[in-house]
Amino acid sequence: xxxxxxxxxxxxxxxxxxxxxxxxxxxxxxxxxxxxxxxxxxxxxxxxxxxxxxxxxxxxxxxxxxxxxxxxxxxxxxxxxxxxxxxxxxxxxxxxxxxxxxxxxxxxxxxxxxxxxxxxxxxxxxxxxxxxxxxxxxxxxxxxxxxxxxxxxxxxxxxxxxxxxxxxxxxxxxxxxxxxxxxxxxxxxxxxxxxxxxxxxxxxxxxxxxxxxxxxxxxxxxxxxxxxxxxxxxxxxxxxxxxxxxxxxxxxxxxxxxxxxxxxxxxxxxxxxxxxxxxxxxxxxxxxxxxxxxxxxxxxxxxxxxxxxxxxxxxxxxxxxxxxx
Length: 325
Ligand SMILES: Nc1nc2c(ncn2[C@@H]2O[C@H](COP(=O)(O)OP(=O)(O)OP(=O)(O)O)[C@@H](O)[C@H]2O)c(=O)[nH]1
Ligand SMILES: [Mg+2]
What we know:
- With 325 residues, the protein is α/β, with parallel strands linked by helices.
- It folds into three domains: 4-54, no CATH class; 64-126 and 299-316; 137-293, 3-Layer(aba) Sandwich (Rossmann fold), CATH 3.40.50.300.
- The chain has twelve helices and nine strands.
- The chain has a six-stranded mixed beta sheet, with helices on both faces. It has a three-stranded antiparallel beta sheet with strand order 1-2-3.
- α2 runs antiparallel to α3 (68-79), α3 (68-79) packs antiparallel against α4 and α5 runs antiparallel to α6.
- The longest helix has 16 residues, at 200-215.
- It is globular.
- 27% of the residues are buried.
- The model has no long low-confidence stretch (mean pLDDT 89).
- Guanosine-5'-triphosphate binds at residues 145-151, 164-166, 168-171, 193, 249-250, 252-253, 275-277.
């Protein structure tokens, strides 16, 4: 037990797969092989050919975990993409939310509804974050043509993903890429510049950008100081006012008479100034994004419900029960 052995997994094949075998308990072994899908699949195929039953990870979790919530957290951990989200899911795997729900059930059973509601409130405040432990937050880069949306996407990703050009109307479709900001998984979407001109393809691009503006977890409305705040900016802000950040681009360009006046600036939406060329303001922007997506980080051991079903099951505990005699 606890011994780790290196060897080759052979069946009828001349060339075997390199493996590391570890016996972790009386009748439990772990096999580790090369990371590629083909290496693992080839070993599984060989085992299946020998009559060994192959079980999916999901089935294994459901059979071996005491509670469906623990099974879901175990499966979630496999899909989690950052250390920060893994830590929260690990708390759930260790039983944080199961214990919290049991406390609520006990309070309801004893008729202590006020206590039950307070305990539920303490969990509910993490619902939005919970739904983004596995699925990324959606961030939209939007604004009129040529304000620097694609340049900012490339800067945030750290590589040249989108085409950047001085010609207005370069991006005509949505373009999305996943990354993480401050340890939170995000999907950043570049969009077509909002304007009324353009051909039928560009118009469709604009329609998609406006739809994305309504549904984004956070939209970055980009303003080129040389052009200033326009009716298109105002339209985007009005579509999703509570989930908007205003970003002034091209801060490396010196202007004689800066025209960037945002009528909402006094109304507590302070623009963040960035340059995709020099990188100025990018750390501040990343910090602002993180703060807007996750204003408070859950303390260690906090119960966080991370699927809509789990969150609904919490609400069901408080819904009126109609019983028939
Ligand atoms: N100096 C400077 N130029 C920038 C900056 N960001 C973008 N540009 C330039 O502005 C022009 C437009 O940039 P894009 O990133 O293509 O702008 P966009 O908003 O994606 O434009 P559309 O796709 O046409 O809507 C290009 O010539 C870029 O090089 C910046 O921070 N500083
Ligand atoms: Mg573009």
